[in-house]
From TrEMBL, chain A:
Record-given protein name: Phosphate transport system permease protein
Gene3D superfamilies: MetI-like
NCBIfam families linked to this entry: phosphate_pstC
The entry's keywords: Cell membrane, Membrane, Phosphate transport, Transmembrane, Transmembrane helix, Transport
Its job: Part of the binding-protein-dependent transport system for phosphate; probably responsible for the translocation of the substrate across the membrane.
Superkingdom classification of source: Bacteria
A Pfam family matched in the record: BPD_transp_1
PROSITE patterns with a match to the protein in the record: ABC_TM1
Signal peptide positions on this chain: none
Transmembrane segments: 21-44, 79-104, 116-141, 153-178, 199-221, 271-293
From TrEMBL, chain C:
Name of the molecule in the record: Phosphate transport system permease protein PstA
Predominant localisation class: membrane
Membrane-spanning segments: 12-34, 66-88, 100-123, 129-149, 181-202, 258-280
Family of this protein: Belongs to the binding-protein-dependent transport system permease family. CysTW subfamily.
Subcellular location(s) per record: Cell membrane
Coiled coil: none
Alphabetical keyword list: Cell membrane, Membrane, Transmembrane, Transmembrane helix, Transport
UniProt keyword Ligase present: no
Topological relation to the membrane, as annotated: Multi-pass membrane protein
ABC transmembrane type-1 domain span: 62-280
InterPro entries to which the protein is assigned, alphabetical: MetI-like, MetI-like_sf, Phosphate_PstA
Organism: Paenibacillus physcomitrellae
Length: 299, 320, 295
């Protein structure tokens, strides 16, 4: 369109408004992209320095089991292992609980369940992670110490705290999936004379499974990145644990413990950035898995 | 990466250009009449509460670093600004590593550290740029759970515990109870001091040992966990845990001052090169009798001025 | 076992787990409240923390949390809503939009500690903002913006298409339609979403350890000059928030009543988050009623 003399005034005003709107909103979106690019760039540049500048070998970092910064041994496998084990265990504990809660809200007592359980789940999501850590250390750890062998602190304590933290994530996604289920699907099943459990197990669960898995993966992603609550209860020994009740470390707990004690640019500091880079890359992996699952649901 | 380094930098800069305008003005403007201020300040501060006239000093000082030293610096800074209203002092935490990084990069005037800079900074030239100001001494003792039944440990016994050679208290004359080690992370200054002066050697992290950086958490765990051993700065030790004699020597302030008890370290405040007038005045105030006999003792440190001995980075001890 | 019995057992199991979840929450809240609430009084909420003496309060920390939250919202709301409007109204379905959506998704799932470290490296050190309210607020912006984008986009999508068509029929520009027709209708949902996100900001600690710092200078509440170090609103002073304070007191606390302070501060934090939740519901309902009654 050409800017011509006879363009009506109103039209020109529209164009100006339109431009302002477009430029402003585009700026906001570009900002998002700038942020993510700079995060990836800065974390990667620090994280790669361990290998490029300090000459730590990548395979030693990923598969080495000894973490002794003083004698230049930077094996991060125990931390990677710890992160995966705790988030997996957390998902294993939280998933059945979450699915039950979701079924309770949608299939068993929709009214009462929504009124009581829904706010409970939302409140659990709102409790800050330091408070989870605080309760974990003051209630859960002494309990585990008394009941099980070991010192209470360890993988089990970390996983349990994490599982409660990710419960709301899985529950809310499962609930959404269950309540968007077409009615006639269930009615057909009941019409065939199936009991409620048969309907749930035979029709409902298989249909919503991909969505539930999406929730589980998102929950795992959250558990993987959680730092303070885990650090307070897991014990932080740089070894692969042989028992659930033994002290272990996660990537996040090692970073929070050591980052402020080390000088930027030192090998040990760079190694911590490499772990942050792993956390970053895992985020991409988790998002990718979620995408794949969502694609399956759509079909 | 598709983006070149410069492209990313440009993007990030663009994002912050508006904010950079109000960026921290850290270049502390040194006082106008710098030469006479330093001595004035320390002289005045000895009679600080009664002489608020000293105001010729101006500038801004930022100290960051060690969380162990931070309460002391914080408290002294507040007192210092009362008599030197022209000087604003900001105390930030962040840990020894952060403090050393920031002072070395010139982002702050003072970097607080629990250890000698040479032990943290790998680049020797960078470490040499920093000037050490030792403002207090922190001593630590091994502590055990009260049920353990051991009140004295030799160096050899401690080494055997922390290297995993002895795993039960009964081998040390205590109860039949497994030993649980509550250690510090490998980067911790407290651990470095404990290993250097109590054990005399570096130790590896044992499987199943617990590592906590925070003294409060260590104390809580030693109190609650049967058979636990850890180590704490004197200021954290109370009757919920059992402090242990080292080679038969009680962990007391007097024994540290006379050199009988070896497990202690200086608290350092580093400046990059010579400090400016305002910073110098603050550091002088830090080692003045008023602070050393007052705040330093109150917060559980040992005054540098009380020490009868001097120890260098290699552990060589000379009498004062 | 007959199908009926199986059904009963399954129902029982589901109810049992649901009750268990409620019990966990009630137990946790109860624990926090019982231990903490006796410690909360006016003095505790307003006085300064003590390093070694008993009787310290959380006044500056509470102020910092609120101030940081407000500053974050001032930065986030215009940016988040802007980007959300772009996604809902301007973006054409295609590669670029899909990748922007991916960016939002990834950004919102970054671990808070990684974003905090990024803040330490870039804001605190490279840009030299130091440990400050500003660094903290900018880092929280990174968390909050994707949430705002999502909330805004959802809210705009839920506006009935007829309203937009009415605007087009009147010959209004697209931007005018957005600001004067769609935005007011989407507002209740945006406000509810913002308040819920605010609750999350309020409890964040890991990222703030590395950006807003662990200290607070002595605040002078009569000095409102934003460049003065002791001014509460100086954006370049370090600011320890309530959740960071809980972490610090719990881990390093020297004062004899450290445990009670941590418990009291936890209770205050949880109460604040509960208030945010209730406020979000209440305002959401209120605005919904208002808008529906206008129609």
């Amino acid at each position: 369109m050409n800017e011509k003399q006879e363009t009506p005034l109103l039209f020109r005003k529209h164009r100006a408004e339109e431009w302002i709107g477009r430029i402003y909103t585009t700026f906001c979106v570009v900002l998002l992209i700038v942020i993510i690019v700079s995060i990836v760039y800065y974390v990667a540049s620090k994280g790669v320095a361990t290998f490029a500048i300090n000459g730590v070998s990548l395979s030693q970092f990923l598969f080495g089991q000894t973490w002794q910064p003083d004698s230049n041994k930077f094996g991060a496998l125990p931390f990677i292992f710890g992160s995966f084990v705790t988030s997996l265990l957390a998902a294993v504990i939280a998933s059945p609980l979450s699915v039950c809660a979701a079924l309770f809200m949608t299939e068993i007592t929709p009214n009462w369940g929504k009124k009581v359980l829904q706010p409970v789940v939302e409140l659990l999501a709102g409790i800050p992670s330091v408070v989870y850590g605080f309760i974990g250390l003051s209630v859960l750890v002494p309990f585990l110490r008394d009941v099980f062998p070991g010192q209470g602190i360890g993988v089990a304590a970390g996983s349990i705290v994490l599982s409660i933290m990710i419960l709301p994530t899985i529950t809310s996604i499962a609930t959404d999936a269950l309540s968007s289920l077409p009615r006639n699907l269930k009615e057909a099943s009941y019409g065939l004379g199936a009991t409620r459990w048969q309907t749930i197990a035979g029709v409902v669960i298989p249909t919503v499974l991909p969505s539930v898995l999406t929730g589980v993966v998102l929950g795992m992603a959250r558990a993987f990145g959680e730092a303070l609550a885990v650090q307070m209860v897991i014990g932080n020994a740089p070894h692969i644990p042989t028992s659930l009740f033994e002290s272990a470390s996660t990537l996040t707990s090692v970073i929070t413990l050591n980052m402020s004690n080390t000088v930027m640019g030192s090998v040990q500091n760079n190694a911590l950035w490499s772990m942050a880079l792993i956390l970053l890359l895992m985020t991409f992996v988790f998002v990718l898995i979620v995408r794949l699952l969502e694609r399956r649901t759509r079909i | 990466m598709k983006f070149g380094k410069s492209a990313v930098l440009a993007l990030t800069l663009a994002f912050s250009v508006s904010l950079a305008a109000c960026g921290n003005n850290n270049n502390s403007s040194s006082g106008s009449n710098a030469s006479d201020n330093a001595s004035n300040a320390s002289a005045a501060s000895n009679t600080a509460s009664t002489a608020p006239a000293e105001t010729s000093l101006s500038g801004s000082v930022i100290a960051s670093g060690s969380t162990a030293l931070q309460p002391l610096v914080d408290q002294v800074a507040k007192k210092f600004s009362e008599t030197n209203s022209g000087v604003s002092i900001q105390v930030q935490g962040g840990g020894s590593g952060t403090g050393l990084t920031q002072v070395s990069e010139g982002q702050v005037q003072i970097g607080n550290s629990d250890v000698f800079a040479e032990e943290k900074i790998e680049d020797a030239a960078k470490a040499a740029e920093l000037k050490d100001h030792q403002v207090a001494v922190v001593a630590m003792a091994a502590v055990v759970n009260k049920e353990v039944g051991v009140t004295n440990l030799t160096k050899q016994q401690l080494v055997e515990i922390f290297t995993g050679k002895i795993t039960n208290w009964k081998d040390l004359g205590g109860k039949d109870q497994g030993i649980v080690i509550i250690n510090r992370p490998s980067s911790s200054g407290t651990r470095a001091t404990f290993e250097k002066y109590a054990l005399g050697q570096k130790t590896e992290d044992l499987k199943g040992s617990i590592q906590e950086d925070a003294s409060g958490t260590v104390k809580k765990l030693v109190t609650e966990t049967p058979g636990a051993i850890g180590y704490l700065a004197f200021s954290y030790i109370d009757d919920t845990v059992q402090s242990v004699q080292y080679e038969g020597v009680d962990p007391t302030t007097e024994n540290v001052a006379t050199g009988k008890y070896p497990v202690w370290a200086y608290e350092h405040m580093y400046t990059k090169g010579d400090p400016d007038a305002a910073t110098q005045a603050f550091l002088d105030y830090m080692v003045s009798d008023e602070v050393q006999k007052g705040d330093v003792v109150e917060l559980g440190y040992i005054p540098v001025s009380d020490m009868k001995i001097v120890r260098d980075i290699d552990g060589n001890i000379t009498n004062k | 076992m007959s199908a009926k019995v199986k059904d009963r057992i399954a129902t029982g199991v589901i109810i049992f787990f649901s009750v268990l979840i409620i019990a966990i929450l009630v137990g946790m809240l109860g624990y926090i409240m019982v231990r903490g609430i006796s410690h909360i009084d006016w003095h505790f909420l307003t006085s300064e923390p003590e390093t070694i003496k008993a009787g310290g309060g959380i006044g500056p920390e509470l102020f910092n949390s609120v101030y940081l939250l407000i500053l974050t919202l001032i930065i986030t709301i215009p940016l988040g809503i802007g980007a959300g409007i772009y996604m809902a109204e301007y973006a054409k379905e295609g590669r670029i939009t899909a990748s922007i959506r991916l960016v939002v998704e990834v950004l919102s799932s970054f671990p808070s500690i990684v974003v905090g470290l990024f803040g330490l490296l870039v804001l605190v050190n490279t840009f030299n903002f130091g440990f400050s309210v500003l660094s903290g607020a900018l880092v929280l912006t990174i968390f909050n913006m994707p949430l705002m984008v999502r909330v805004t986009e959802q809210a705009f999508h839920n506006v009935p298409i007829e309203q937009k068509e009415a605007g087009l029929a009147m010959g209004l520009s697209h931007w005018k339609i957005i600001t004067s027709i769609l935005f007011p209708v989407a507002l209740p949902a945006i406000i509810t979403g913002t308040i819920l996100a605010a609750g999350r900001i309020f409890g964040e600690a890991a990222a703030l350890l590395f950006t807003a710092g662990l200290t607070t200078p002595k605040l002078d509440f009569t000095d409102w000059n934003p460049t003065s170090l002791h001014s509460p609103i100086n954006p370049l002073r370090p600011a320890e928030t309530l959740s960071v304070h809980i972490w610090k007191v719990n881990s390093e606390g020297l004062s004899p009543d450290a445990a009670q302070i941590a418990a009291g501060a936890s209770a205050v934090l949880v109460i604040m988050v509960l208030l945010f939740n209730l406020l979000a519901r209440w305002i959401g309902r209120l605005l919904y009623r208002k808008f529906t009654s206008i129609k």
